[in-house]
Design brief:
- By secondary structure, chain A is of the alpha+beta class.
- Chain A folds into 2 domains: 3-145, NADH:ubiquinone oxidoreductase Nqo5 subunit (Beta Polymerase, domain 2, 2-Layer Sandwich); 209-523, Cytochrome-c3 Hydrogenase, chain B (Orthogonal Bundle).
- Chain A is built from 17 helices and 16 strands.
- Chain A has helices spanning 8-15, 40-50, 105-115, 209-212, 218-226, 233-248, 254-282, 286-307, 329-353, 355-361, 369-374, 379-384, 391-394, 415-438, 489-501, 509-514, 520-523; strands at residues 21-25, 31-35, 55-63, 67-75, 80-88, 93-95, 118-120, 164-165, 168-173, 185-191, 194-201, 316-317, 320-321, 456-464, 467-475, 481-487.
- Chain A is globular.
- Chain B is mainly alpha-helical.
- Chain B has one domain.
- Chain B contains 13 helices and no strands.
- In chain B, helix 5 packs antiparallel against helix 6 (137-168) and helix 9 runs antiparallel to helix 11.
- The chains are: A alpha+beta, B mainly alpha.
- The A-B interface holds A 162, 169-171, 177-179, 193, 280-288, 290-291, 294, 354, 356-357, 359-360, 505-510 and B 35, 38-41, 137-138, 140-141, 206-207, 209-210, 213-218, 289-298.
């Protein structure tokens, strides 16, 4: 069944006849479905039956005054649908959707933590984002919370012992561990060298950026959301400004779209090169690491040439980009890209054929296509398992609709496939940048936009290097947003690691984990 | 009297303790520099010319650091394992003829090859104990890996070491060296290549460095160590690497044998020995740079399924070809 031809709206209209739902076309994606408390599960069920690629992208919780809105953002193979449900603030209970889609578990936990919505029937309720000593009954993303009222409980004095129950040893990977460059904790129970269980705990570096962005203007928020992640900063900025532009109904100049595409692809290039090298480090292949990072440096220089900054590029703004590209810089960029392209066959050969690398990566962390769909994974992780989702193709933004490129998929679903997806995408990125440079339209690179954004809401997705990045912005008609929701790709991909690590050796944890390209500063917004 | 002074000089200065200590550090520098250059890095560059004093600086720095003994560790073992491992390895080195004769004159006896190999196993076991006494899960996993690996690889290593002993008709190191006017590496290249690979595993270097897999078990058996004890653990490891290379030189490359052009034969002997040893260090480092680290189960499987049968085959081959090889010895 060619999935591209499913008309999800028609499916929903026929299947949900007589149910208390309202379909609003063109709002929050392809369509927004307002479903009263009971019916949202029927909508999801109907979508799942019609399209196997239906997956939960994010769950947004939002304080609507008397009620709390719970928005399920669902992606299908060719549509993006938001199911809007509401629960009263006094008794915020809603049934879990994890029975239909296990990938929603993390999203539900986050909404429960930050807005106090109780998801009845959730398989593993508990704290995910907030610290253990956070007081009960205070939910940071509700509008009536005052910072002065938050009194943290004294930190737990019970020291977490490395338990030694019979044969099982509990090893804590993180918050400080050489394999993790950022602080998160994974308590791994091992029997000898075999992993029996993995318990995640994230939120060690949670900065409350979603809340902080509510007290800054839209323009300030562009630079705030950029700082969610140092590596894919341009993706965050682009996702945010596009969302605001959707509310403003701004027409971004054609040239700005191409410039954004170039910056986004440079971002992807250096991110992929970073991961491909880092994977070498995790399997004790230092030489590979050093080589990749050597070749990543010129790309960082290119980002500096194009945007003026090496890391946080600060190049996006609502209505365009902040800096035009100089004609004299274009040959420089092309030289660097040609040099990199010449080196690619060598790297590809290593990643495809080097025996010790294959021994460490093949059949490690295998995620089947069914699990990948069920766990709602995104980006190279999904593509490595044969799920051909790529926002750049599925819902083209910026100039991606006009630029030819391939969506890389591998079917084995193991660490090796995921890394090879990235390896091939490096070449595609170079092609995209070169095409964009050759076909750059003339004209303005930004338009002026009003500072005050009219009331409205919008969702937006971009394909960050790590996968689909989702933004939801609600405006209340002032210069400050009412709600900004960010769902980062790593947040969606962690559940797949929890599943694939079990039953494998501890030695498989680092390569398996790094193949998700985990970014915890993204995960802890 | 002069004999005693000579003995003390030989044991303490050259080619004994001081020489071994500084030569080990020199080898460490060579390794680091070669690895760095192969990986497009600079490597140590600031301490001394081209950073040659960096290993010494690291050693002294570690000696000045605070030493922490975890309260749940087995304190006696925890304290003495590093220094004992280092001492045992240096003691084993005393049997190797650096300048043509072993460090303590006339110490060589029939079967000292077996004795030296046994000393290395003891040193490895002490490294295992150092991790086991730390009362830390990373250490105990790292220690278990050390044990698994050296127990497995000791067998093919010893089997391969028998080949030169068989060709020389003696288990005495000095006899083995003196019968190599043509190095055994030329006469029995199959055993030589296998010995280098097995030694790579025995020395826990890539692709066999699972006990030191920092992304899995932090620093393995060294995790809880600090200060002087860590300094000696690291030094013991470096001495082990030099010892491994020296053993290859002795068994397969003819030890200190080489042309003497003028002056003291002892000087030329040491020079040839050092040059051969450095060549082995370079080859071993080249292998390290070339491969990714294998998984512990793959390492163990590689031993029992590949190296052990191959070492048996190599021994059979050596024995069956002995008729043609003997005239060349």
């Amino acid at each position: 069944m060619p999935s591209k031809e499913i008309d999800m709206i028609k499916v929903l209209e026929t299947k949900l006849k007589g149910k208390p739902v309202q379909i609003q076309l063109g709002h929050l994606g392809t369509a927004a479905v307002q479903a009263s408390a009971g019916a949202y599960k029927d909508v999801l069920k109907a979508m799942l039956e019609a399209d196997e690629k239906t997956a939960v992208t994010a769950i947004t919780g939002i304080d609507l005054g008397a009620n709390i809105g719970v928005y399920y953002h669902i992606r299908t193979s060719n549509a993006f649908i938001t199911i809007q449900a509401e629960v009263p603030k006094e008794n915020p209970k809603i049934a879990t959707v994890t029975d239909l889609m296990s990938g929603a578990a993390f999203h539900e936990l986050e909404v429960a933590d930050l807005l106090g919505v109780v998801f009845e029937g959730h398989p593993s309720p508990g704290r995910l984002v907030l610290p253990e000593n956070w007081p009960e009954g205070i939910y940071p993303l509700r509008k009536d919370v005052k910072a002065s009222e938050v009194k943290l409980n004294p930190p737990s004095t019970v020291d977490e012992k490395l338990s030694d129950e019979g044969k099982l040893v509990k090893i804590v990977i993180g918050p400080q561990h050489p394999a993790l460059l950022e602080p998160e904790k994974f308590a791994v129970t091992v029997d000898g060298e075999t992993v029996k269980n993995v318990e995640p705990r994230i939120g060690y570096v949670h900065r409350g950026i979603e809340k902080a962005s509510e007290s800054r203007t839209y323009l300030q928020d562009v630079y705030l959301v950029e700082r969610i992640c140092g590596i894919c900063n341009s993706c965050h900025a682009t996702a945010f400004v596009e969302t605001v532009e959707k509310i403003l109904k701004t027409d971004v100049p054609h040239r700005a779209k191409y410039l954004r595409t170039i910056i986004l692809e440079l971002n992807r290039l250096h991110s992929h090169l970073l991961t491909l090298g880092h994977a070498g480090l995790e399997i004790g292949y230092e030489t590979l690491f050093q080589y990749f990072w050597r070749d990543r440096e010129p790309i960082m220089d290119l980002i500096e040439i194009v945007t003026g900054n090496r890391v946080i590029s600060s190049s996006m703004t609502v209505g365009g980009v902040r800096r035009d590209i100089k004609d004299t810089d274009i040959p420089k960029i092309k030289t660097v890209l040609t040099d990199l392209r010449k080196k690619l066959p060598f790297y590809k050969e290593i990643y495809e054929n080097e025996p010790s690398l294959k021994m460490r990566m093949q059949k490690v962390g295998t995620l089947s296509k069914e699990d990948a769909l069920k766990l709602c994974v995104v980006g190279p992780v999904a593509r490595g398992s044969g799920v051909d989702i790529d926002v750049r193709k599925d819902e083209p933004y910026e100039a991606y609709g006009e630029i030819p490129f391939k969506v890389i998929t591998y079917t084995a679903g193991d660490t090796w496939s995921r890394m090879n997806v990235r390896m091939d995408e490096v070449e595609e990125s170079i092609n995209i940048i070169e095409y964009a440079l050759d076909n750059m339209p003339a004209g303005a690179y930004r338009v002026k936009v009003p500072r005050v954004v009219p009331a409205g809401e919008a969702v937006n997705r971009v394909e960050a290097p790590r996968g689909e990045l989702f933004y939801y912005v609600k405006s209340n008609g002032t210069a400050y947003p009412e709600r900004v929701k960010v769902r980062t790709p790593t947040f969606a991909n962690i559940p797949s690691f929890l599943k694939t690590a079990i039953g494998e050796s501890i030695a498989d944890i680092p390569p398996n984990f790094v193949s998700l390209d985990p970014c915890f500063s993204c995960t802890d917004r | 009297m002069i004999d005693y002074l000579l003995l003390i000089f030989r044991v303490l200065v050259f080619p004994g303790f001081t020489f071994i200590l500084f030569f080990t550090m020199f080898c460490d520098w060579v390794e680091r520099k070669i690895e760095a250059r192969m990986q497009n890095r600079m490597g140590p560059s600031f301490t001394g010319p081209s950073g040659i004093l960096q290993p010494l600086a690291d050693f002294i720095k570690l000696l000045t650091k605070e030493e922490i003994t975890p309260c749940e560790s087995k304190k006696t073992v925890f304290r003495f394992a590093p220094i004992l491992a280092f001492s045992v390895l240096v003691f084993a080195m005393c049997f190797l003829p650096f300048d043509g004769s072993s460090i303590i004159p006339n110490v060589s006896f029939a079967g000292d090859l077996i004795f030296v190999m046994a000393l290395v196993s003891v040193a490895n076991f002490l490294l295992f104990l150092s991790g086991w006494a730390s009362a830390n899960p990373y250490s105990s996993i790292g220690a278990a890996r050390v044990l698994t690996q050296f127990l497995g690889y000791d067998i093919p290593l010893l089997m391969l070491a028998i080949a030169p002993a068989f060709l020389a008709g003696s288990l005495t190191i000095s006899t083995i060296v003196s019968s190599q006017w043509l190095p055994f590496a030329v006469l029995a290249p199959w055993a030589f290549v296998l010995f280098i690979i097995t030694m790579q595993a025995e020395l826990e270097k890539d692709p066999f460095d699972v006990p030191h897999a920092e992304s899995e078990v932090v620093a393995g058996h060294e995790t809880e160590y600090s200060g002087g004890k860590l300094a000696f653990l690291k030094l013991a490891r470096d001495v082990q690497i030099v010892f491994g290379a020296a053993l290859i030189v002795v068994l397969f490359l003819g030890g200190a044998n080489g042309p003497v052009f003028f002056g003291l034969p002892a000087f030329w002997g040491t020079l040839w020995f050092v040059i051969k040893l450095l060549a082995i260090v370079v080859v071993s480092e080249y292998l390290t740079v070339l491969f990714a680290r294998l998984r512990i189960d793959q390492v163990v499987r590689a031993n029992w399924r590949i190296l052990l049968p191959l070492s048996v085959l190599s021994l059979i081959l050596t024995i069956s070809l002995a008729v043609w090889i003997y005239p060349l010895v």
